[in-house]
Write a structure and sequence with these properties.
The complex is a heterodimer of chains A (246) and B (282).
Chain A (H helix, E strand, L loop, with lengths): L3 H9 L9 E2 L9 H20 L1 H22 L14 H5 L11 H16 L16 H6 L1 E4 L4 E5 L3 H9 L11 E6 L6 E4 L4 H9 L4 H8 L5 H11 L2 E5 L2
Antiparallel strand pairs in A: 2-6, 3-4, 4-5
Helix pairs in contact in A: 2-3, 3-5, 5-7, 8-9
Chain B lengths: L11 E4 L5 H6 L6 E5 L9 H12 L2 E4 L13 H14 L3 E5 L2 E4 L2 E7 L5 H18 L4 E3 L6 E2 L6 H12 L2 E5 H11 L3 H7 L5 E7 L2 E4 L5 E4 L8 H14 L4 E4 L7 H19 L1
Helix pairs in contact in B: 3-4, 4-5, 8-9
The chains are: A mainly alpha (246), B alpha/beta (282).
Protein name (chain A): Putative DNA-binding domain-containing protein
Organism (chain A): Pelagimonas varians
InterPro entries (chain A): DUF2063 (IPR018640), DUF2063_N_sf (IPR044922)
């Protein structure tokens, strides 16, 4: 009898023989007919990773990406049939591959691609109307909670993660410089956009994510923090959805 | 017994691809309904759900699951049953269908439709899984015949007997994939026409058509691959004509999932399906 455990084990590891009990229409051993399933599984999972990580695929080139994806899919099959979530652990996996360890920024670029995909599928939320900030006195503003949209994602990196991503994905983008970059990802309607955050911006937004009031978030961002540019990014990107006055 | 009222119309439909969204809204003819893969519409929001809501206001929608693993040895995933229930409940599609196959084992999803032997034991399990699904979504489903590249020594029933008995035990209807019949019959050396003769056509709520690729096995025998990446082959259209002659008009779906063409090419395939329907409607 051919169990599904046998069938699955040999699907993902070609060093296993074709499971017994599988035949063609005349009772002969199935042989390479079984390879159709091996190929379907590997190709479909690799295609899913390539769709999810176009910048990584471009940075590594076809052969290296196929190697990395092939190793990953044999160790990490999807945990559910929702392929939109597949590959969430691929960024961490990339850091374990010896030949790729010299490319320090690779995992963070992959984290950025995961964040973009999560943002794309996140729940819809109304875009915050900046007029609601007008007329608030300072006390009311300092104690208010700015609510981030479900599509908002924050990525802090010691690498020029957004510059590398843009250089890879957007023709004509400038060559990255060796600087740390913090990035906000959000969508106003359907397409997530990525925004470079100024100094202190990521601390400010991280505090909002932790449900701290506006005043506490300002403190978290430090004395030299200039709110204007970060607030402007928050408003333009669709990352804010509401304000709760206390 | 499967009730075909409030089901899909006996017109051509296509598997929906997001790149065709504008074309479909502007110039859908001859397409009268659309099919979507359930698992692509289980995110929390964003464009996929917005597009599906907009399309469902214009077209009957068929929801086609590709991930429940009805033929699996494991119990059905309760989380996935709940997701399907949620989708069917807000969308209220014209039809829900799934596959006679397994795709999940030991909590690992393999993203392919894998085969199962046809025995009394698997019959009971498949019927029980369909029963659970139908209870969850509150309506009967259609079960699709697989494309097979190999057979199981342990099988004791023909596929058509198996499908008939599953439908009898669970009350589900059937989705007849004519390309899968042609692919499986060629690969396993039986007559596709004989399969249609044996198949319970009165239970069919939908027919699938898709393209296949040609390969060969270790002995040089033809091995057709169900690729959904090209036009429907001529012998499959001929098998469809034979089927429609016996069944009468049915909802006909063109599946094109890889190397997806521009809308006019897909609409032309749907036009060929419309011609096949016109022959039996006249």
């Amino acid at each position: 009898m051919t169990t599904q455990t046998d069938f699955r084990t040999a699907l993902l590891d070609a060093s296993y023989p074709v499971p017994a009990g599988l035949v063609d229409g005349r009772g002969q051993a199935a042989g390479r007919r079984y390879d159709v399933y091996r190929n379907n599984v590997a190709v479909s999972l690799q295609d899913a990773l390539e769709t999810a990580f176009p910048a990584i695929a471009s940075l590594l080139g076809p052969d290296n990406f196929a190697m990395a994806a092939g190793l990953y899919l044999r160790q990490h099959q999807p945990g559910s049939p929702l392929m939109m979530h597949y590959g969430a652990s691929f960024p961490a996996f990339l850091t374990t591959l010896e030949p790729l360890k010299s490319i320090g920024y690779l995992a963070d670029v992959a984290h950025l691609e995961v964040a973009v995909r999560q943002s794309y599928h996140a729940a819809d939320a109304p875009v915050f109307d900046p007029a609601r900030l007008q007329g608030l006195d300072e006390d009311a503003l300092m104690s208010a909670h700015l609510i981030l949209a479900p599509s908002a994602r924050l990525l802090r990196s010691p690498w020029p993660v957004l510059s590398v991503y843009s250089f890879t994905m957007v023709p004509g983008s400038p060559k990255p410089s060796a600087i740390a970059e913090d990035v906000l990802i959000a969508r106003a309607e359907y397409d997530p956009t990525q925004h470079l955050l100024p100094q202190g911006g990521a601390d400010f937004i991280a505090a909002l994510q932790q449900n701290q009031p506006f005043g506490a978030a300002l403190n978290a961002a430090g004395d030299s923090f200039d709110l204007g540019p970060t607030l402007s990014v928050l408003l333009q990107s669709g990352a804010l959805t509401d304000i709760v006055l206390t | 017994m499967f009730d075909q009222t409030n089901a899909l119309p006996p017109l051509p439909g296509v598997g929906y691809k997001p790149q065709h969204f504008s074309d479909i809204l502007e110039n859908p003819a001859p397409v009268g309904w659309l099919e979507v893969h359930a698992e692509n519409y289980m995110g929390d929001g964003g464009r996929p759900l917005a597009q599906l809501r907009a399309l469902s206001e214009r077209f009957p929608i068929s929801v086609h699951g590709v991930g429940l693993s009805i033929g699996g040895e494991d119990r059905l995933d309760p989380d996935h049953l709940a997701r399907l229930k949620h989708l069917v409940s807000w969308l209220n599609p014209a039809s829900f269908s799934e596959h006679l196959a397994w795709s999940t084992h030991d909590s690992h999803f393999l993203n392919d439709l894998l085969p199962l032997p046809y025995t009394k034991e698997t019959l009971t399990r498949v019927a029980d899984h369909i029963d659970q699904l139908q209870n969850a979504i509150g309506r009967p489903m259609l079960l699709e015949n697989p494309s097979s590249y190999l057979a199981f020594e342990q099988s004791t029933m023909s596929e058509t007997d198996f499908l008939r008995d599953v439908a009898r035990l669970s009350g589900c209807g059937l989705l007849l994939d004519v390309n899968n019949v042609f692919v499986s019959a060629t690969n396993l050396g039986y007559s596709p026409q004989g399969y249609i003769e044996d198949y319970p056509l009165d239970l069919v709520g939908e027919i699938h058509l898709g393209g296949h690729d040609e390969d060969h096995d270790d002995h040089g025998a033809p091995l057709l691959i169900d690729s959904h990446g090209r036009e429907v082959a001529d012998p499959v259209w001929a098998l469809l004509d034979l089927t429609l002659e016996k069944s009468g008009p049915k909802p006909l779906l063109i599946e094109w999932d890889t190397d997806v063409p521009d809308w006019p090419v897909l609409a032309a395939e749907a036009g060929r399906a419309a011609s096949a329907l016109a022959q039996v409607s006249a």
